[in-house]
């Protein structure tokens, strides 16, 4: 497909097929994170990863992904949005191949960083190409499907990874990206029309570099501080992020053609939508982080079974997305988004009832409500964010939306993950003391590291009990046999009590962390409801409002064709 979309006088005939390609590209970059949650135990065992190594295997993808999106989105706008998509898919596929071949923690982290670099090109390109290809009257519907795909990917990642891990190693979760990326590349070249900005302004590389510095430092601080302690690295990152943000805003306010006109945040619809996206993914990614652990470790499901049990969330996302397409034009964006955020708060509040006796049935209603909330809240926000940008800056608009999403997700895992870890450590110590279990020296400290480590300690004590029982069977005297048998029984009881203490402590920690998440999202719901304008404007009105709030864009909008 060689004809640029900007030269088409009528809407592109195969635009819905092009949307399928864009959604497929989005699917694999979101699944790259969620699939890793179920592949992590096998990877940890095979590579001997420490908790620090595993954290950076996960977040080595996040830092370049979040930091580079704004600059790469602007470069895609100027030169080629489709070119950015295809190049991003190539880089992402190459990183996936490398990740499947390495045999060290450093190698996996480096491969994940390469994948993050590719994802930073792909993510804003999917939204900018969607907005450029679809006429304004259909853009909201297309964004609904794009958002539903993101929600599907959250749940599909564990399912696909679980199915692969049934018969293959963790490397298969990397390799599955390669054929999908290849199909997306071919589909992009055949079905997605080329697109780029209609102006020749030079890219604001200084502003772009400052955005990389402050965003990257902020994400690094979010990861480093809560998980590894507020040491010199975390504090230095916080300082760099703060100074970099101030420098970025100051530069953008003075530059005649900034990479991002920060005055847009004066528009309540735009700033409220970005806040809603960030807060919502804070809650969703944080909850997903501990729910998958609870299903695997406490309830004992294998990776495939865990993925299957996340499907109610994926189905509910599609239902919620369909509802928002019907409701938003009738009752307005403010009510739809606020209702979605209230529903998300309710879902987290329901998880506060989790305890040691909870079964999977207790998770079904929260998963369904959370999926409905994702569908209701995110599509209108994404549509509002993209509608605030002129046609020449659609890549930047997509990058702003995706950066809000990624920062929110990183904060969710950092904040709620930190609350979970602290609560679990404290509650396990209390539960172990109350059980009266006699534990070998140092085992409690090891068990407090994570729920997986806790069950591993219990398993180790049980294995020791079997070993001592075997020695009792081979004892040469009745007295020695009786003594060894007593030790074996004591160890077996200790193993059982330890396993019960771990399950109880983690379940109580899930309830406590869910309460914290519900409070954060509840407060955020009030802030978003205050920020969003009372009457939802049409797309054209929203553009006019934003142009008025951002004087520098007014002339650009007048010259842009209204497709």
From TrEMBL:
One of its GO terms (molecular function) is transmembrane transporter activity. Residues 539-563 are annotated as: Disordered. One of its GO terms (biological process) is response to antibiotic. It is found in: Cell membrane. It comes from the Bacteria. It is a multi-pass membrane protein. The keyword Repressor does not apply. InterPro entries: EmrB-like, MFS, MFS_dom, MFS_trans_sf. This is MFS transporter. It comes from Streptomyces venezuelae.
């Amino acid at each position: 497909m060689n004809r640029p979309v900007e030269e088409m006088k009528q809407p592109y005939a195969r635009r819905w097929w092009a949307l399928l390609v864009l959604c497929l590209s989005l699917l694999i970059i979101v699944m790259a994170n969620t699939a890793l949650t179920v592949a992590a135990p096998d990877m940890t065992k095979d590579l001997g990863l420490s908790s620090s190594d595993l954290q950076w295997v996960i977040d080595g993808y996040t830092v370049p992904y979040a930091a580079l999106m704004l600059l790469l989105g602007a470069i895609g706008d100027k030169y080629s949005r489709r070119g950015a998509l295809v190049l991003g898919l190539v880089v992402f596929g190459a990183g996936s191949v490398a990740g499947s071949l390495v045999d060290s923690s450093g190698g996996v982290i480096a491969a994940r960083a390469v994948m993050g670099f590719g994802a930073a090109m792909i993510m804003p390109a999917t939204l900018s190409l969607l907005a450029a290809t679809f006429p304004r009257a259909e853009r909201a519907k297309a964004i609904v499907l794009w958002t539903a795909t993101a929600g599907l990917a959250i749940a599909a990642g564990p399912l696909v990874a679980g199915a692969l891990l049934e018969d293959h190693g963790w490397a298969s979760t990397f390799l599955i990206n390669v054929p999908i990326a290849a199909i997306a590349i071919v589909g992009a070249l055949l079905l997605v029309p080329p697109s780029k900005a209609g102006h020749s302004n030079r890219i604001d590389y200084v502003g772009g570099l400052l955005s990389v510095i402050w965003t990257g430092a902020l994400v690094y601080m979010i990861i480093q501080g809560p998980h590894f302690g507020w040491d010199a690295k975390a504090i230095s990152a916080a300082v760099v992020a703060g100074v970099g943000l101030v420098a970025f805003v100051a530069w953008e306010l003075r530059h005649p053609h900034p990479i991002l006109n920060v005055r847009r945040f004066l528009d309540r619809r735009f700033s409220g939508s970005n806040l809603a996206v960030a807060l919502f993914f804070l809650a969703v990614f944080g909850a997903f982080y501990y729910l998958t652990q609870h299903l695997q470790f406490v309830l004992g499901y294998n990776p495939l079974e865990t993925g299957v049990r996340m499907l109610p969330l994926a189905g509910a996302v599609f239902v919620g997305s369909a509802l928002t397409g019907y409701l938003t034009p009738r009752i307005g964006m403010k009510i739809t988004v606020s209702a979605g955020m209230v529903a998300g708060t309710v879902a987290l509040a329901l998880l506060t009832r989790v305890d040691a006796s909870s079964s999977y049935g207790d998770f079904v209603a929260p998963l369904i409500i959370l999926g409905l909330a994702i569908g209701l809240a995110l599509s209108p926000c994404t549509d509002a964010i993209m509608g605030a940008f002129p046609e020449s800056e659609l890549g930047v608009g997509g990058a702003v939306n995706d950066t809000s999403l990624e920062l929110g997700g990183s904060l969710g895992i950092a904040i709620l993950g930190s609350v979970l870890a602290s609560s679990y450590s404290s509650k396990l110590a209390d539960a172990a003391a109350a059980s009266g279990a006699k534990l070998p020296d140092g085992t409690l400290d090891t068990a407090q590291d994570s729920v997986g480590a806790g069950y591993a300690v219990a398993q180790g004590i049980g294995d020791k009990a079997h070993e001592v029982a075997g020695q009792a069977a081979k004892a040469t005297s009745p007295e020695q046999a009786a003594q060894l048998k007593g030790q074996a029984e004591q160890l077996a009881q200790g193993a059982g009590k330890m396993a019960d203490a771990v399950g109880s402590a983690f379940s109580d920690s899930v309830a406590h962390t869910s309460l914290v998440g519900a409070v954060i999202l509840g407060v955020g719901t009030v802030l978003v409801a205050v920020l969003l304008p009372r009457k939802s404007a049409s797309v054209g009105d929203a553009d006019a409002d934003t142009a008025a709030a951002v004087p520098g864009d007014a002339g650009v909008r007048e010259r842009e064709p209204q497709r």
